[in-house]
Amino acid sequence: MQVSMTVNGERVSHEVEPRQLLVHYLRETLDLTGTHWGCDTSNCGACVVLMDGEPVKSCTVLAAMCHGHEIRTVESLHAGGELDPIQQGFHERHALQCGFCTPGMQMTARALLDENPDPTDEEIRTAISGAICRCTGYKNIVSAVRWAADHEAARSEA
Amino acid sequence: MQTPAPFEYERATSVEGAIEALERLGSDARVIAGGHSLLPMMKLRLASPEHLIDINDLTELAYIREQDGEIRIGAMTRHVELLKSDLLAQRYPLFADAETVIADPVVRNRGTIGGSLCQADAAEDLSAVCLAAKARVVIRGSGGERIVGMEEFHVGPYMTAVGAGEILTEVRLPVREGAGSAHEKVERRAGDWAIAAASAALWIDGGAIVDAGVALSAVGMTTVHLTRAEELLRGKAPSEELFAQAREIAAEDCSPSADGRGPVDYKRHLAGVLTHRALRRSTARALSQEA
User: Which of A49, B153, B208, B251 would you call most buried, defined as having the most Cβ atoms within 10 angstroms of its Cβ?
Assistant: First the structure.
């Protein structure tokens, strides 16, 4: 079947099998391998992308269900040669070790700050509770999101 | 790699269109809403529908409103909307209790109340919530609508009263004064299924419980309706002693299985404790003293 959607601001259209999952469409058809394919059971959150601005687990959404919708992947964060504050925060606060969970963590965090620019640590922890990191113990990830929130606020005031 | 078996996909653009597709395609067709129960089952081949009818475009089924003495919730209302609803927070706070512990925020962006109820998984929270709240559901087919009480909705594990060529369109909750409700759940870790969960709703007038709804998740083959506890509570003044009796009934009337989440005696004990807590909290809320 023919499926058309917007991915990172670009219109794409492909013939897909109805059973193809969004994560595989992104990685294999569009070659956007930044989105990681992890547990495949909607538990780990490595595959999180934004669908119409809301974080979803792309292993549990069919590509066909995205027809006519807008998808944002981790590749969209790094726009115009500049890192997104979320990415900078991960760098500044050493919020990754192996990096497998990072794309999902960053897209989940991006959606949080888009909705709530000044979250408490508790709100950050709740937002990322659907994403599993086996390296960091989450402390640095929470700190990175906090860093991004502070720097986005400073930027918008400047 | 887990991928569902091949199927044909089509999108419904109206409720009537979805019903027409179900009638045309027969028993090999399934409706897909959020897909967070159905797609995992399809990956594991526990479900292998040959046709999926996607109803995500039916935004006319996404609403929470008060009308004719009831709260009406459209079947396509997503978990996140149930969690954020001021109307439900005011009338039935057990929804927010449950929604903060159903899966995780990202899953809650997709999953729907209609999908949860129709999945009819005994470990799922909203079935107990709706049973305790004495909800009725609206089921639509080509011949019109019928209304079924939650106590008759689940006819077996993963089986509901929704028949061939029918879809669930709405959940209705009674609005009565003196209501208080709560949902209590214990899970192994954030986002997991319940080890056990208890839902309670009480309607208190003049110092007495005029009506009660109590139900349990994850401790039986289907959602457990604690009718004996409801009978016990009705007509009596709320008290710790009364709730302790209901707690005994909950532990006796559930039928949990031993698994990785715990042995049977532990789950029975937990079901009792959570029932007690849910009743205590429902009472405090009915009397406007948050526990």
Answer: A49
Identify which of A19, A64, A127 has the shortest CB distance to residue B105.
Answer: A127
Cβ-Cβ contacts under 8 Å, B40 against chain A = 41-42, 60
Residues of chain B with pLDDT under 70: 1, 289-291
Smallest CA–CA distance, residue B45 to chain A, in Å, is: 13
Written as six digits, the tokens of B176 are: 């009565």
Helix%, strand%, coil% for chain A, nearest 5 = 45, 15, 40
* C-alpha span between B148 and B162 (Å, rounded): 9
Domain that holds residue B38: 8-53
Of B7, B11, B35, nearest to A61 by CB-CB distance is B35
Predicted confidence (pLDDT) per residue in A68-87, tens digit? 999 999 999 998 889 999 99
Nearest to B106 among A62, A65, A130 (CB): A130
Run of H or E including B86: helix B86-91
Tokens of B156: 């077996």
Buried b (16+ CB within 10 A) or exposed e, B64-98: beeeeebbbbbbbbbbbbbbebeebeebbbbbbbb
Residues of A in contact with B7 (CB under 8 A): 18-19
Global pTM value: 0.95
The reported pLDDT for the residue numbered A65 is 98
Question: Which positions in chain A touch B54 (Cβ < 8 Å)?
Answer: 64-65
pLDDT tens digit string along A8-42? Answer: 999 999 999 999 999 999 999 999 999 999 999 89
The phi and psi torsions of B210 (rounded to 5 degrees) equal: -85, -25
ipTM: 0.94
Question: Does B244 share its domain with B185?
Answer: yes
Strand partners, B202: B180, B212
The pLDDT, as a whole number, for residue B291 is 47
Domain boundary pick from B121, B138, B173: B173
Q: Calculate the alpha carbon distances from A126 to A37, A130, B231 in Å.
A: 22, 8, 38
Q: How many domains does chain B have?
A: 3
Question: Which residue reads 């670009």 in tokens?
Answer: A10
Contacts of B32 in chain A (CB under 8 A): 65
Using the structure block, give the residue that is written with the tokens 């997104």. Answer: A84
Q: How many CB pairs under 8 A join A and B?
A: 77
Q: What is the pLDDT of residue B290?
A: 55
Assess whether B65 and B168 both reside in one domain. yes
